[in-house]
Amino acid sequence: MGIAGPVVPTQEAQPTLRPLGIANVRITSGLWADRQRINREVSIPIGSTRLREAGNLADLELAAKYLTDPGRPADRDAYRGPWFMDSDVYKWLEAVSWECLRADSDELRSELELFSKAVETAQHDDGYVNSYVQVTRAGRDRYRDLVMGHEHYCFGHLVQAAVAAHRLLGDCALWQVALHAADHLVATFGPDGNDGLDGHPVIEMALVELYRETGRTQYLDLAQHFVETRGRGTIRGRGRDPIYFSDRVSVRETLVPEGHAVRAVYLAAGASDLALERDDDSLAAALDRQWHAMTATKQYVTGGLGSRWDGEAFGDPYELPPDVAYAETCASIGAIQWAWRRLLATGDVRFADGIEQLLLNGFLSGVSLSGDAFFYVNALQVRSDAVPDDHRQPVNGRQQWFQTACCPPNVMRTIAQLSGYLATGDDAGVQLHQYAAGEIDFAGRRLTVSTDYPWDGRVEVTVDVTDQRDWTLSLRVPSWCVGATLTDPDGQTTPVSAGYATTRRTWQPGDRVVLELPMPVRLIEAHHRVDAVRGCRAIARGPLVYAVEQCDVVGALAVDDLTLGADDAAQLTPRWESDLLGGCVTVTARTFTAVPYFLWANRTVGPMRVWLPLAVTG
Amino acid sequence: MGIAGPVVPTQEAQPTLRPLGIANVRITSGLWADRQRINREVSIPIGSTRLREAGNLADLELAAKYLTDPGRPADRDAYRGPWFMDSDVYKWLEAVSWECLRADSDELRSELELFSKAVETAQHDDGYVNSYVQVTRAGRDRYRDLVMGHEHYCFGHLVQAAVAAHRLLGDCALWQVALHAADHLVATFGPDGNDGLDGHPVIEMALVELYRETGRTQYLDLAQHFVETRGRGTIRGRGRDPIYFSDRVSVRETLVPEGHAVRAVYLAAGASDLALERDDDSLAAALDRQWHAMTATKQYVTGGLGSRWDGEAFGDPYELPPDVAYAETCASIGAIQWAWRRLLATGDVRFADGIEQLLLNGFLSGVSLSGDAFFYVNALQVRSDAVPDDHRQPVNGRQQWFQTACCPPNVMRTIAQLSGYLATGDDAGVQLHQYAAGEIDFAGRRLTVSTDYPWDGRVEVTVDVTDQRDWTLSLRVPSWCVGATLTDPDGQTTPVSAGYATTRRTWQPGDRVVLELPMPVRLIEAHHRVDAVRGCRAIARGPLVYAVEQCDVVGALAVDDLTLGADDAAQLTPRWESDLLGGCVTVTARTFTAVPYFLWANRTVGPMRVWLPLAVTG
Lengths: 618, 618
Fold this sequence. Notes:
The structure is a homodimer. The first copy, chain A, is built from 17 helices and 20 strands. By secondary structure, chain A is of the alpha+beta class.
């Protein structure tokens, strides 16, 4: 079996780093192991229930029913939910596939089979499948509304799920459905056919990965067509202009992502795949320029992306209000996907730093500790007296599911495939990008990682099994870290700075390297143009950003009125609390205790803030 | 003829102040005279053109065409614009009527006649008239979509226009149309009929004013029904919940306005009318509590209301980001209407202060100096590198018209009736609330006001004609003013503090009172909970808030990077510039010149900010 991970560049591609599969990197304990357990035991099973309750499965069944009926379906009104319901099914099936690769499950396999069958049965002879169009329009008028119809978007998630299923099962029903659908797209779209573009990218990433899995260049060509023809300023509709659809400027010419955040980062991730497989340096350079501009001017300290509720969109540069932040969970996921692709391509540590920031803050906040509730929007502040209107969920707390339920299954698939993002490796070495206690087993080498990260900065890597050749062990030293040291197998300790700390040697079984990442409490100050948090500091420790919830403020003080005095700043004390929120390190000051941001709203739902004003003296 | 002003409480009502009509208060020179001239010469004529171009008039003509056709209109698709197109016509007709009352015009009268005829011709025999419903639904399914259909909203503006026309013309076509429509509403809605509520208030104000104009209590009763039954939490639809519709909490129990800002303030204005006419102290108290909570926690320094683009809505308390402020021009207008009603009722100077803040900042910014372009959204900051997407107009500058064109005719009617908001009076005295050079002529008294307000704080009031009785002249001393003095006709100068400075005497022709309102440049600091402008100051002088535009920054400094040093603060210098922006007082510092906020975006459209960060020392 080849590499069973989320992104597998072809042998012809020239990435700097080669991914390891999910099965090659196992997380055995600690925070991420807990999250993966909950994902398996709670979230993924809930997904199955919700997809039935919300009508996603029934919609596919209806679509199958009317497949052979040329007339208008009698119960077309029985279709439930928005027009992209199928995509939730696909994302969840992708989660199931990765989860089975991670740790097999008969139950999940039979769910995969059942839902795959529903998709297969709904698919038209020519490869088209979309329950909304098939039910509500009797399958006519396909692609009538490419701008908002999400048909390619649904196909994209179908393909991504099918690739994961193929890596689990080899040939299978979902795989055949996806191939058929992709062939339908190839036959229908492109320079010689329908030259339209779907308003919501994701098909680009999907087609490149399908090319990787099959070697068929027509998929890569179509992905390239979709990427290259975007940016003509023609996609508009439902009151949205080309900016919203990442269509104002071409990918190559974009300076910083704009418009709908999820669309923008999905497109960038797909273009990153393309740049790698086509060895397209100028496209790659454009994407990296965008990444760095985005992280410098449009990203919250939590990693969150998207400042505006209106259009679920990026704001202007430095428009980063914490209270009305949108920071959709899916945008964090898309950014992780983008960064991972560019990390593989370049080996640039900044992408790994970015993934860490996202994973442990603005992504992980998207799911409750219990795994059964989700944030779509990840605000950095909730005020006292906030009005809990229907859809302003930072005020209402995490929800069980959504009318637009993109985020929950996206969280599930990401946590299931998480170990695929931790390490890379090839003959020349092994690179650890994210830290979790676990094992890496790959091409005759086995390493054990022992750590309490992110609660503690000590990371021990022991080489258990190795061949007798020289290879390099690279350990990421995060950009937030000052004073890191590396102790080599000979017991030599040396200071290491941000980047990758490398140890090259002929390894012996039992060799151990220890990375020490000091984690003092830090106070982060924003760029001066971020008006919304002027005069404030965010508390951080290690990779984690902290939040102060009203329930952790001493006395009658409102969290809105909290300030950070010079005394407080000097006395911010980290403390491991094993009984709190599944075990976490809190940071205590004179008047409050802060908890990791991703854990907020797991006890009560109330006022909260990440940015604390400095007390004004004099 | 009675009082020809915008709000005329009945004789049975017990307002503290009695309005004077538009014809009784004439503005003769200065800023507002210029604006009224431009309104007459440019804006109102443009309105006529736009209403033809956009299809508003044609929609009414289509409606007339299908009035007698029981079938489905063949060219129903010929209807143009959104479903509330009629309301723009009505607001513009109201502007025309007030304008003719202010200074008669044969041209405007014939426009009034022409459009009135179109409305009359479109009206159904039973009084119903709504071009959208009549054309697109053949008049069927009236009130099918009360939540978003704006049918009562259109009726409300029809009635308001008709009241203005009635004050101009007495009985006339528009008046009869409105009476007929109102009778239709009375026959259709209420506790014994359809108990639904329109999603967009305004009908409440309109029905009370119609009651005042006719003495028919059924209109007042229906207004009361609409006010009293709102707040049951039942109005929802199109993704909006009761909060959006001011329906989460009853008017009596609301603590601070929430949801869609224009809806909320229109409702409060209508409820204010009701409270006065029904002598309902508890309702009045609820409204005043809301006003003061709103101005304390949800109002921008420009008077602007509504922090969120999403839902055009109020934010939570203290959520007042300057860059993404919505601050719709119509919300400023609605707030002026609300405040005026409560000012009449209570005589509380805070309402007059609030009107001044709104009029000279967040309202007047809504129209260009040239009178031919309009802001719907009145942001307090535009960043460098802001992306000019289609509907983010603070970045694009004022627009000629809008798909949803509520604001332009609303500006026109407000400027036309402006003199109605300046003064009140009765036997006991005359009260001046807003200052403009002009004449007040009322019940045998005539006063001349000489002033360069708002550019200069000296206000001279000369009594030209008077009877021999004692009466009191009250002059508002604005809350922003420190060190005001009043010089009485005997030449006695005394310090006066915020509130009303009164002079009671037996006046003689030629008696003169001089109010001196010192106008040093001030720096305004926001409440500490307004995170978005922490560490900043807004420049103000007199009633005007200032803005710094990129074009007025010295050298290559971006307005985004501007700070206010201790040196700057000490050296802020006001200067009258007769050739700039129609003549205005600028405020100059070492590195920039600030212009009155309402005048921004009249030269170039570019980065701008109202709130300036203090330079951080040390």
